[in-house]
Amino acid sequence: MNVFMRINKIIYCILPLVICITAGAQQNAQQTITDSISLTLDSAEHIFLRNNFQLLAQQYNVDAQKAFVIQAKLYPNPNINVATALYNPSAKKVLPLPFSNDGEVQAGISQLIILAGKRNKQVKLAQANVTLSEYQFYDLIRTLKYTLRSDFFNIYYLQQSAKVYDAEIQALQHIVDAYAKQDGTGYIAKKETVRIKAQLFSFKSEYNDLINQINDLESELRLVLQEKATVFITPLANLDNEKELDPLKIPLSTLVDSAYKRRTDLLIARANTDINKLNYTYQKSLAVPDITANIGFDQQGSYVKNSTTGGIGIDLPLFSRNQGNIKAAKQLIEYSLASQKGVEAMVEENVTRSLQKAIAQDRLYKSIDPTFNAEFETLKKEVLGNYQKRNISLLDFLDFYDSYKQNALQLNAIKYNRVQALEDINFFTGTTFFN
């Protein structure tokens, strides 16, 4: 018994210090937040599309690929060359005047003529790269939007759980303060006061962990929205149609068809296959040498004076016929086709699993008695009043408060898991079926 009393005394002395340290840490963390904004989901998505730097950077990449199309359409420039005499040893003249009896001028102009449709193939290849960059842009939007919506709802439901902790901490703190006023009167047992303080510290510790989790999600959400690090975002979730959302209303075949048509990572895989096919055709055309046509003029250095000549030049494909690049391009087609089939299999599996998960979460959510939480809330107030009147024991009181907390946290977790499962369907199908 003496040992137990000593332990109680140690706890009684340490708990206030620990509680003060925990509260001080929370206060210091809150001091870094200088502004708070409340956002609906639509407002958050609008800010995201307008401000996100990653989207802006990817848009520049799309514009750059469009510029490559312009470049691919251009013809090669003609080449012109002119030469004149520096010294005439017969006339012993330095820099004799061109077109004089002692001078000499040679001039020529040449033009590369591209054969085998190389230019058109380059244009198609550049246009395919534009399509690929656009798909990459939309895939970035899809991924970041999924992060935004997930964080938005996660923060919202975690904040609802934080309110539960806050209410219970205030209630227990009120009891602790009331007991402190009666300390030494003998009306309240010391071990009962210590037990209440221990429960209060436990709630504060859990609350602190919850706040840290919220702050981590806030940090990620701020990065997506490109908000300042000193801004705290409070989600305003519109849950008016929450109960109407039903994953069973949409057939699996519809979801899979939507994913095959709109899933941007699959479109990227298909675009890569198309690019490799176009590149294979282009590499085969490079095996055909191009022609260089030229016209030349020579004042005195040819077989007659003022000679004008014309000609063509072509590489002889004796050693290099672009064999290596053609073979590599063909292998890349097989590689991209295999990758595309892998993405297609992943798409169907993702959609099927997300629907299964959403159905399970929806059933769990709809199995909850809608009056249960309200009844628990009313009972909580009655239990607190009965304990203060000493009608129930300390253990019954603390047990109920812990049960109430667990019930509230589980209910918020169930609601969030259901919303997140529906968001997974939106993400894996590339279509907003649930909003």
Explain what the structure shows.
The chain is α+β, with helices and mostly antiparallel strands and 435 residues long. It has three domains: 1-75 and 123-238; 77-113 and 291-321; 241-287 and 322-435, Outer membrane efflux proteins (OEP), CATH 1.20.1600.10. Helices cover 67% and strands 11% of the residues. The strands form three sheets. A four-stranded antiparallel beta sheet has the order 2-5-7-8, with no helix packed on it. The chain has a two-stranded parallel sheet with strand order 1-6. Helix 9 (372-388) packs antiparallel against helix 10 (394-429).
Could you give a quick summary of the protein structure above?
The chain has ten helices and eight strands. It is an alpha+beta fold and 435 residues long.
